[in-house]
Every structure is written in structure tokens, then in C-alpha cells.
Design brief:
This protein is an alpha/beta fold and 103 residues long. The strands form two sheets. The protein has a three-stranded parallel sheet. Strands 2-4 form a two-stranded parallel ribbon.
Length: 103
């Protein structure tokens, strides 16, 4: 696997806030992520400066993508950077939930 081709800075994408709470704030991120993954571009979601995210935001940016493409495809193309324990735990929860739905 080659190196990361694109970095999406979550804080910048949601207007500089340190908490991403709404599904709406994740729509553009998900679309950018999906477009790049479909082109074979590896993507890193960078959570620098983020204190937390909501379950609905996590589902919007990762859950929907996992349901569309499957976990194996995503885990080889999507990286996380600067995610704290709470963010990592929530993203993992959403991935587990999405696996059950898509199975």
C-alpha cells in the first residue's frame, strides 16, 4: 500500500469547532471521503484539535461508507490521525454497528 494521498482535517471542515455534533456537519466530509476512495486514493481523517464527535457524526463520516463498501475495503484505505480515546472508541462502535447492518 502506498502512502497517504489525502488528509481531511475534521476541525477545518466543520468550521473550526472542536466538537462535531451533527450528521449535517459530516455530509461534505463523507462525500469527499467517498469520492477519493472510489478513485483509489488513500485518505487520513485528521482529528487534530477535536475534543469529541457525536454518534451521528461518526455514522455519517464512517458508518455509511462502511455499509457501502465493507470493512475490509475501508480498513486498507482509511487512516485516522490524532484521534483521542473517545473518538476512536466511538468510530469503532459505529464500524461494528455498520458491519452488522451490512452483513
Amino acid at each position: 500500500m502506498k502512502g497517504v494521498d489525502m488528509v481531511i482535517n475534521i476541525k477545518n471542515e466543520i468550521g473550526g469547532f472542536d466538537y462535531a455534533g451533527s450528521r449535517d456537519s459530516g455530509v461534505n466530509i463523507r462525500e469527499t471521503l467517498r469520492e477519493n476512495l472510489e478513485k483509489g486514493i488513500n485518505v487520513t481523517l485528521d482529528f487534530t484539535g477535536m475534543s469529541g464527535i457525536s454518534h451521528s457524526f461518526a455514522d455519517e463520516i464512517v458508518g455509511i461508507v462502511v455499509r457501502a463498501y465493507g470493512v475490509d475495503f475501508i480498513k486498507n484505505k482509511l487512516m485516522l490521525n490524532n484521534d483521542n480515546a473517545e473518538i476512536k472508541s466511538l468510530l469503532n462502535l459505529v464500524i461494528r454497528e455498520s458491519r452488522k447492518i451490512s452483513a
